[in-house]
Amino acid sequence: MDNISEALIPELRKIETDFHQALTKLVEIPSVINETEGDTPFGKNIDLALKMTLKICKQLGFSTYYDPEGYYGYAEIGAGDEMIGVLGHLDVVPAGSNEEWETPPFLAMIKDGKMYGRGTQDDKGPTLAALFAVKALMNLGISFPKRIRFIFGTDEETLWRCMNRYCEIEEIPSMGFAPDSVFPLVYAEKGLLQLLLEGKNETKLRFLAGNAFNAVPDTAKYAGERQSELKTALEELGFAYETARDEVVVLGKAVHAQITEKGINAINRLLIGMKRIGYTSKTIEFVNDLVKEDPFAEKIFGECEDEASGKLKFNVGKIELNEEVERLSIDIRIPVTADKHEIVNTLSQIAKEYGLEYKEFDYLKSIYVPKDHFLIQTLMKVYQEVTGDLVSEPISSGGATYARAMDNFVAFGAVFPYQTKTEHQPNEHIELAEMFKAMHIYAKTIYDLTR
């Protein structure tokens, strides 16, 4: 069909209200994880959302499958050996304080051209938009010489156990996308390595600082001896601090670990100050000798970067010195063409010289689909045709999207470059006109991918 794009718009208009009604039903299911509830892995509401989605798919004409263990489900249409995948998730983060919401978080409401509710943007809205986009193609009598499989995850907001199970026992699509991020698309995501460096604490130092691996700490408190000397050292170094409740509080600037160079690490500054007044320990020496305030840790890894995704990023997110151990909690964003095993071996060997043992906490492999790949070329061509946006480029990211779950997947929409991301926030919403445009993009994309 040569005029597929023109034919799609009126067909999408016919089912737009059906899309709104289906999304309303899904938003009203508070699918927040609750592992202590019921016989399903993530709680009755997540299971209810999965079953509701599969029911919607069946009504639209898809064949469906529900994992007997309740980890995932999928819906499929088309024929052929090759399969194109669309990966979305049905779990949501908690609503938070209801007082911060202008509308009830789990009651989908439309006002001023927007639909409000938890999950509208992340990720029930975009997932259903892609689903109804395929329904429009079906209504036009389009045949699919490749299979299209919508895979519905249920544990994206926590540990991705849904996709771990799916990938262990199910067929993996040859390529696909996750409508769970931004347009135009994210083609490269750095490897995300979180680790501990631990050693026996042979000092009398006791302190704790930082909240998360993936956050540059904005404060680091010290309540031990020699605070007056420490304050003098911090002043000499030009490091901001304040005194509170018999503590010295070193001040930094909090940012996400994927942009650690834009923050100021309060833990590193505290350890630099402590070294200056003569304190020593395994972690103090490690940070002072090898890291200091370098967000790229080039003394450890050299100039580790690539054209696709940029520099390696290194963040000391937490530190603990208790009666038994010294422990650093570290987040590393690894360039997509770098070898994770080489990174680990280099860090392990150097840490050992300081009496620190490497312990892996978590790892998400990088994704990288070259810009000349058929998938990238097709998605970008459709995006540009539908939007007229010839300026926005494919994105490289240090963050993590659901596309990491499978090879040859990229994140593709549904937030446009000029829109505000509202996921995980009070008053999460979608702009209905922009979501209709996303539906148009998804329909034309799937048509082109299956030709």
Outline of the structure:
The protein has 451 residues and is an alpha+beta fold.
Summarize the SSE layout with pairings.
Blueprint (H helix, E strand, L loop, with lengths): L3 H24 L16 H17 L2 E4 L5 E6 L5 E7 L19 E3 L2 E3 L7 H16 L7 E7 L7 H9 L5 E4 L2 E2 L3 E4 L1 E10 L6 E3 L9 E4 L4 H11 L3 E4 L2 E5 L14 H11 L5 H9 L7 H4 L3 E2 L3 E2 L1 E9 L3 E10 L5 H14 L3 E8 L2 E2 L5 H14 L7 E3 L11 E3 L2 E2 L13 E3 H18 L2
Parallel strand pairs: 3-6, 3-7, 7-22, 8-23, 9-21
Antiparallel strand pairs: 1-2, 2-6, 4-5, 5-24, 9-20, 10-18, 10-19, 11-17, 12-14, 13-14, 15-16, 17-18
Helix pairs in contact: 1-3, 1-11, 3-11, 5-6, 6-7, 10-11
Q: What does this molecule look like?
A:
This protein has about 450 residues and is of the alpha+beta class. It folds into two domains: about 270 residues, Aminopeptidase, CATH 3.40.630.10; about 170 residues, Alpha-Beta Plaits (2-Layer Sandwich). Helix content is about 35%, strand content about 25%. The protein is built from eleven helices and 24 strands. The strands form seven sheets. A six-stranded mixed sheet has the order 1-2-6-3-7-22. A hairpin with a 5-residue loop joins strand 1 and strand 2. Helix 1 packs across helix 3 and helix 1 packs across helix 11. The longest helix is centred in the first third of the chain and has 24 residues. It is elongated and about 75 Å long. It starts with a helix and ends with a helix. The model has no long low-confidence stretch (mean pLDDT about 95).
